[in-house]
Amino acid sequence: MSTDDSNHGPPKPSIRITVPERYYLLPGAAIIAGTTIGLMRGSRTASLRFLAENAHRAPTTVQGWYFYNKTKNYRVLMGGLKEAGAEAAKLGVTAAGFVALEEGCKRVGLEDIGEVAAGLGTAGLFAAVYRLPWKATRRTVVLGVLLGTTLRGLRWSRDSLREQASARAEAEE
Known about the structure:
The structure is a single chain. With 173 residues, the chain is mainly alpha-helical. 78% of the residues lie in helices and 0% in strands. The protein has helices at residues 21-53, 62-108, 114-129, 134-172. The longest helix is centred in the middle third of the chain and has 47 residues, at 62-108. It is extended, with a radius of gyration of 26 Å.
């Protein structure tokens, strides 16, 4: 028996799917941020709620304090996890919408202003879904355009740095 691969025939075809980094990095980071925010807010809210609900009946025995703290810890954990899931879903869907709008602009041929248009569109959708008043809508739109412009500037910087690196590599050869 030979370990030579030439006896086995042509290589089997395989399916390769290339997903651009942008599709999973931005929503993934938003989900992580939402989880962190939700855990903090939900835990604090559940803790304060438990204290308010049980302020009138403080435990009097050691066993009573043990079960009081045990119950409080479980409720704080559950409240934090519930809020973390909700915040992660909200921010993840918002970021996925941003990426979808950006990709739509790219496919239409507006790649140069894709980030700015995605920021503007996401801010507009956010303001419409939450029925924000006019003043808050203006602030949201400005924030969306600012975010889009920042992302566009970062993309331009990355592309120019890659160009410089490839030019230096060609000059050294």
